[in-house]
Amino acid sequence: MAVDVGAQLRKGVVEYCILGLLERQPMYGWQLADALSGPGVIAGIGTLYPLLGRLRDGGLIVAFEKPSDAGPTRKYYRPTPAGLARLAAFRSQWPTFISTVSSLIEEENGGTH
Amino acid sequence: MAHTETSPEVAAYLRELDSALAHVAPDVADEIRGGIEEELLSLSPDDARDRIVQLGDARFIAAQAADEDEPVPSSSARRRSILGSRIYAVVAAVVLAVGAFLVPLVGWAFGYVLASVSPVWRRWEKVVAVAFPLGMTVLVGGFFAVAGYPGAAVAGGNPWFTLLPIVLSNAAIVLAVTNAIIGVWLLVRALVRARLSVDGF
User: Fold this and answer.
1) CB 3.0 to 4.6 Å from B35: which of A29, B28, B60, B149, for a disulfide?
2) Could B38 and A51 be called an inter-chain contact, meaning their C-beta atoms sit closer than 8 Å?
């Protein structure tokens, strides 16, 4: 069975990507879907809402409604203090993790095995 | 400028989406539906048409959601699992259907609370479950009040003393009967959804 390495990697980081985006500013569903599906972090809007549900169940984000200039009231999401703490913990470990994994999977000099 | 009018294309796409999301967990389905609806209604009809093309096949969106919505072993997920179980749905629908016959008003309210906290049903189904019986009760109660008032007034005394028992008893009957209908409707929808879903709900 073929293993989609990209999908496995994305699964591990996608929730932190959402927290990272929401830390900058509260965003609504379409904005998040657009920002995450562009670089291929999620497949599409159908993938987004189960992730948001899990983050909300875990107390890492909250939703709130905000009137919009064009159209109906929008549901926005923002991180909770627990969500920001989780993001900070991830951020502190991420560079070390990348460096460790890179050193482990690095090809030998000259490309010999 | 607000574009809150629903164009035929948007309405058709939302219908497709509702149908495609039938086998997705109702709380996730509600979120997806709400998010897409608010986006489409914020656009002009032309832009909404383009966005529908960008969103793509509603069945694909539903498939993405079903793939992503894996159970997680958190306490809230466990609670959701109990409230979303088939047996809970059956009990809630039956209490809603017969509760008003057993304990007038209180039985109905208890059944409605049981159903409203369950993720088995979509938000609009819960709104219909409370609005339909109450609406019908007010209509029938109002009808008996208006139709009976002239006769009661002619009889002398305070007409409401004569009318109130008639209005209340008819309203109670209508509330009980419409709740029975709604309870059966919710039960059927829950069981159909369970049959379509891989894991029971």
Assistant:
1) A29
2) no
pLDDT given at position B104: 75
The tokens for A61 are: 């984000």
The DSSP symbol for A40 reads T
Q: Does pTM top 0.80 for this prediction?
A: no
Q: Do B60 and A44 touch (CB under 8 A)?
A: yes
Surface of B (15-44) touching A: CB under 8 A? 27-28, 31-32, 34-39, 41-43
Q: How far is A2 from chain B (nearest CA, A)?
A: 17
Say yes or no for a CB contact (<8 Å) between B64 and A47: yes
Per-domain boundaries in chain B: 8-70, 76-196
Phi (first) and psi of residue A64, to 5 degrees:
-150, 155
Residue spans of chain A under pLDDT 50? 112-113
ipTM for the complex?
0.82
